[in-house]
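Subgroup meeting minutes
Present: P.N., E.W., G.H.
Scribe: E.W.

1. P.N. recapped why we're keeping a running log of single-chain structure predictions: easier to compare across weeks, and new members can see raw inputs and outputs side by side.
2. G.H. added today's entry (113 aa).
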Amino acid sequence: MRSSADDPFVPSIGEIYLVRTEIMLLPDPKERRPAVVIERPAGPVGRVHVVTRTTDTTRKGVAHPPTPALGLQSAGVFWRYTSTEAASWTPRNCRLLGILDPLTLRRILERFT
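Output recorded in log:
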C-alpha cells in the first residue's frame, strides 16, 4: 500500500538531506549519505542534482566543519556531484537535515555548477 512517504516532492536549493544512495545515479558504498541540493526541476519530472558529503577529509572538494544542528558530527567535504530522478525524491528516500549555511553553499555552487 502506498503512503505519503512515497509521494515525491521538489526540494529547495541549499537544503541538506540524508539520502538513500540507491536512488542516486552514481553508486555509493554507504546506504545513506548527506547531500545538498544544488539544482532542482520546476516540477515532479526531471532530475534533482546534489553534491554529497563525506567525512573522508582527504577528498578534494568544499570543506565543511562539524555541524551538530544538521546531524553532522564530524568534519567533512562536499565532493561528489550526482543526481537522481525527481520521482525518487520522497520522504522515504530523503530526510531533511536542514539548510546549509550560505557561504558553504556559494562555494559548492561555484565549484560544481
